[in-house]
Amino acid sequence: MQYAIIGFVIAVMTGKFFLSQIYNILFDSNMLQENFKGEKIPIGMGLFFIPSLIIFSMFFQLYYNDTGINLILVGCILMAFVGYLDDSTVDKSNKGLKGHIKQLFKNKVTTGMLKALAGFGISLYISLSISNSLQEIIINTLLISLFTNFMNLWDLRPGRATKVFILIAIIGFFLSISYTQYYFGLFICLSLIYIKGDLTAKYMLGDTGSNLLGIFLGICFAIDLGFYYKIALVVFFIVMHIFAEKVSFSKIIAKNKLLNKIDMMGR
């Protein structure tokens, strides 16, 4: 147990140290993108979570050795890398599922499509390791891949995706009866360290961060939830993705007083 506690403390301290370091690296590398206000700020700050995740996983292995720990670590790093490729792409014109499919019919594979295919492949690989039947493999694959993209839907305004993540992670923390509870706790702490600069539009998570946070949630809920709860979540995510292709979440939030107040909190 002491290894887990030591690892947790060091991981959080590492996060506090690396926040400014990663910001400087991205800024100096001209890894910048215009936000919704037209201001150029560093994108890809989701890299901030990786050093702490690696350190905590190393210590946690000494306390609790399970395949799922490596799956969380590898899944998060791989999806962050794929998201980083998308963040570093100059052409941002092909957004949404329709845009990527149109380009595919023109024999052009966008980084967004590559991200989706990679996300599905990584989700399938993880599902094969944690599932006990064909039905579980299918549902876990869908849950992880849809959860990954679900976080992308919220990364449109400062701090919004991080707020959504913290809310879901808190729910996951209290629902968890496994080692994922430690990981939920870590990511909640890291998100609280990170969110101030996100809310003030100093930097952006980017696909690097939303992918990482999304697949993290997907893996943890796939490990923790019962089969029928996972089916319900998959149906919910499918509906939300269809909904997102037709309407703007930002407009819906802006028209609702309570949602808008929560969305603007901290900005």
Automatic annotation (TrEMBL):
<keyword id="KW-0812">Transmembrane</keyword>
<feature type="transmembrane region" description="Helical">
    <location>
        <begin position="69"/>
        <end position="85"/>
    </location>
</feature>
<feature type="transmembrane region" description="Helical">
    <location>
        <begin position="215"/>
        <end position="243"/>
    </location>
</feature>
<dbReference type="GO" id="GO:0044038">
    <property type="term" value="P:cell wall macromolecule biosynthetic process"/>
</dbReference>
<keyword id="KW-0808">Transferase</keyword>
<protein>
    <submittedName>
        <fullName>Glycosyl transferase family 4</fullName>
    </submittedName>
</protein>
<feature type="transmembrane region" description="Helical">
    <location>
        <begin position="46"/>
        <end position="63"/>
    </location>
</feature>
<keyword id="KW-1003">Cell membrane</keyword>
<feature type="transmembrane region" description="Helical">
    <location>
        <begin position="6"/>
        <end position="26"/>
    </location>
</feature>
<dbReference type="GO" id="GO:0071555">
    <property type="term" value="P:cell wall organization"/>
</dbReference>
<dbReference type="GO" id="GO:0005886">
    <property type="term" value="C:plasma membrane"/>
</dbReference>
<feature type="transmembrane region" description="Helical">
    <location>
        <begin position="166"/>
        <end position="195"/>
    </location>
</feature>
<keyword id="KW-0472">Membrane</keyword>
<dbReference type="GO" id="GO:0016780">
    <property type="term" value="F:phosphotransferase activity, for other substituted phosphate groups"/>
</dbReference>
<keyword id="KW-1133">Transmembrane helix</keyword>
<dbReference type="InterPro" id="IPR000715">
    <property type="entry name" value="Glycosyl_transferase_4"/>
</dbReference>
